[in-house]
Specification:
CATH architecture of one domain in chain B: 3-Layer(aba) Sandwich
Strand content of chain A: 15-25%
Largest sheet of chain A: 2 strands, antiparallel
Protein name (chain A): 4Fe-4S ferredoxin-type domain-containing protein
CATH topology of one domain in chain B: NADH Oxidase
Number of strands of chain A: 7
Strand order of the largest sheet of chain B: 1-2-4-3
Radius of gyration of chain A: 16 Å
Number of strands of chain B: 7
Shape of chain B: globular
Radius of gyration of chain B: 25 Å
CATH architecture of one domain in chain A: 2-Layer Sandwich
GO molecular function (chain A): iron-sulfur cluster binding; metal ion binding
CATH superfamily of one domain in chain B: NADH Oxidase
Structural class of chain B: alpha+beta
CATH topology of one domain in chain A: Alpha-Beta Plaits
CATH class of one domain in chain A: Alpha Beta
Structural class of chain A: alpha+beta
Bound molecules: flavin mononucleotide, iron/sulfur cluster
Order of helices and strands of chain B: HHHHHEHHHEHEHEEEE
Mean pLDDT of chain A: 91
Helix content of chain B: 40-55%
InterPro entries (chain A): 4Fe4S_Fe-S-bd (IPR017896), 4Fe4S_Fe_S_CS (IPR017900)
Distance between the termini of chain A: 26 Å
Keywords (chain A): Iron, Iron-sulfur, Metal-binding
Largest sheet of chain B: 4 strands, antiparallel
Largest interface: A-B, 41 and 41 residues
Shape of chain A: flat
Strand content of chain B: 15-25%
Oligomer: heterodimer
Strand order of the largest sheet of chain A: 1-6
Distance between the termini of chain B: 57 Å
Mean pLDDT of chain B: 90
Chain lengths: 110, 275
Amino acid sequence: MAYLTLKERLLIPTYDNPKYARSGQVVIDMEKCNGCGNCAMICPGGALYIAGIGKDKKAHLMEDDFPNCMSCNDCAAMCPRDAVKVSQTYDFGRFYKILHRGGLSAPRKF
Amino acid sequence: MKERNRGDYGSMLRRAFISKGVDMAEKLEVEEKPASEDKTGSMYKWEEGMDWNPVERIILERRSVRKYRDKQVPEALIRRLLEMARFAPSAGNSQSWRFIVIRDKKTIESMEKYAQLRAKFFMFWLNWRTSPLGRLAWLYSQIGIRVLRNDLHPIPHGALAAMAEGTLKLFQGAPTVILILEDRRGAAKPELDCGICGQNIVLAAHSLGLGTCWVGLVELLKYGIKWRRKLKISYPYRLVEGIAVGYPVGNPDGMVERELHEIEWYENSQWKTVL
Ligand SMILES: Cc1cc2nc3c(=O)[nH]c(=O)nc-3n(C[C@H](O)[C@H](O)[C@H](O)COP(=O)(O)O)c2cc1C
Ligand code: SF4
Ligand code: SF4
């Protein structure tokens, strides 16, 4: 079972070291995306940007700065073309280690 | 034996049964209030795998809205939302909340400006990536995170950085802002009561075509005496959260994927973990 070790309790992660703290990740379906910019407009982390011209105008995920994407999936809800979706949730180590969680899932009808 | 004032026949009987250890519910014929057809509770009967009912859909489709139209929300509609808050459950029915509604564009903008200034100030000391203090800021940050482990959790830490840069606005330009204050003398956990009444507001708002966003970063306003005075915040009240309300741009609401959480389940003398 997952738990926090004493060492983990005492160590605060270095936020810009991907080993201890990794932002959320999204996948953008380049076929579907038309670069409308809806997702980038509402992204709370400023994690998305639009680049390219004409047919190549697409949304992209920022790769450098931490932390940006908080895997909220608000971009997915906003996208008119169903082109963007969180593929990996944010993941912290040490003191902020994520405990007792499973994978991503849409609401399930029990 | 002389019965006290409130000792009607029912309570005398009840006391008699309790003293004999008899299950009241079995022995007493409780007169049941007839179920009314128009109450939501009896409108939807659960069957396994059934479709979402409207209440469930509102809960599942609510998303935080971060881009609002310029149009102001009618006053009566905000009043209606606040009415939802009044009927939220609270510990000991202590209703330890207080609301401040701000609908003045200039004031909202100056709150945003102040928050950005504060964020810049904190980031000067704490953001080792941008601060001229460099490694010293890293050291302050490590100490700060230990002291304010919730406020400086990586996500709000990042939000503060984004706010300092100007990419994240406090209220995202919402035309109405509801501030929730906790009465610190409330029963048990007043801060929790504030969360519950706020969620009533938020869910009702989304069911009426509005968009909302919780704004925990109103925390930044607390550092300004000017704002505490202007918003008339003083003991026993403490600013807890803000809720931005307005008409959304586009269609931000919708169901999304989220993580499953492990749930410990004890039944038939056995533990199991369900996801
Ligand atoms: C107590 C609380 C405080 C929040 N503070 C902020 C905030 O300051 N700024 C912001 O953009 N979002 C804020 N949020 C919104 C969360 O980021 C959002 O609820 C979360 O990412 C889940 O996304 P969803 O609301 O679309 O389901 C807050 C939410 C809660 C519950
Ligand atoms: S909202 Fe969807 S279609 Fe528009 S830019 Fe973002 S991913 Fe592309
Ligand atoms: S999941 Fe949320 S934070 Fe991440 S890119 Fe989408 S909108 Fe931005």
